Amino acid sequence: MKKLSVTVILIIFIGLLAVLAASPVINNRMAKNTADKLVDQPLPDDTEFIESIYRAGKLVGNGNGMQYFGAILIKSELPVEKLKEYYLSFAGNEWECMVEKQTDADIKIIEHEQLTFKTAIKGDDYYIVYSWGDNNTVFHEFDIRGH
């Protein structure tokens, strides 16, 4: 009986360790999926894709909670209003496909850590298109970056 109890405790412990180890990997994948959705959308005319970026963690606001951020950097001859109108058609909710001017490599939307594009931004025709993703699994609860 004692051997069975030790075995059960060991299985539970190993299972918990597996969940803790898998959580950051799965959450990073969810953030990457958020960016990939933006990459997969067709670009408007006179617009060039530059790069994409993503991050999972506690990125904005107070309190605990895992957040999933994905973004693309585009260069476009279109004004920001036209780009917002274009990307609005792809948005499933108010947290998807938001467009803002990008004046330098730093992503100012992210508050709690530094996130930057690799591209040196020169000119006033660069824009960030970004979305906040979600994850309906238990893994967001076990990732220390969300706390």
Short description:
The chain is α+β, with helices and mostly antiparallel strands and 147 residues long.
Structural summary, described in words:
A four-stranded antiparallel sheet has the order 1-2-4-3. By secondary structure, the chain is α+β, with helices and mostly antiparallel strands. The protein is 33% helix and 22% strand. The chain is elongated, with a radius of gyration of 19 Å. The chain has two helices and four strands, in the order αββαββ. It has one domain.
Average pLDDT confidence is: 92
Pick out the low-confidence regions: none
- Computed CA radius of gyration, to the nearest angstrom: 19 Å
Roughly what percent helix? 25-40%
Total helical segments:
2
The rough form would be described as: elongated
**What is the tally of beta strands?**
4
Biggest sheet architecture: 4 strands, antiparallel
Order of helices and strands: HEEHEE
The total domain count is 1
Distance between the termini: 39 Å
Question: In percent terms, what proportion of residues is strand?
Answer: 15-25%
Helix and strand composition category: alpha+beta
Order of strands across the biggest sheet? Answer: 1-2-4-3
